[in-house]
Amino acid sequence: MDNVININGTEVEGTQVTDERIVMWDMQNAKPDTPYSGGYYFRSDLKDFVERIQSQGNKVVGIVIDDTYNLELIVQEEE
């Protein structure tokens, strides 16, 4: 099935990772063999911001969410 990905032993249906799509997963709280679903959408310009950061040679590898209403992008700098 091409719409199922496996994350640390957990299969997630309906999630397809491509060059155009980044999926962030909470590895600390995700449990193997547990069904998960998405479908909660929030419209923002985060996609444009991620593209701008990545065009500068950084790869976005994580997002920090806290109680400040700000999102922090974690990047892996290109060598």
List the topology elements:
Layout lengths: L3 E4 L2 E4 L32 H10 L2 E8 L5 E7 L2
Antiparallel strand pairs: 1-2, 3-4
Task: Give an overview in words.
This protein has one helix at 46-55, and strands spanning 4-7, 10-13, 58-65, 71-77. It has one helix and four strands. With 79 residues, the chain is of the alpha+beta class.
Question: Briefly, what is this?
Answer:
The protein is α+β, with helices and mostly antiparallel strands. It contains 1 helix and 4 strands, in the order E-E-H-E-E. The longest helix is centred in the middle third of the chain and has 10 residues.
| Overall body shape | globular
Distance between the termini: 35 Å
Low-confidence stretches: none
Radius of gyration: 14 Å
User: How many domains comprise the coordinates?
Assistant: 2
Summary keywords:
two-stranded antiparallel sheet; globular; alpha+beta; 2 domains; 79 residues
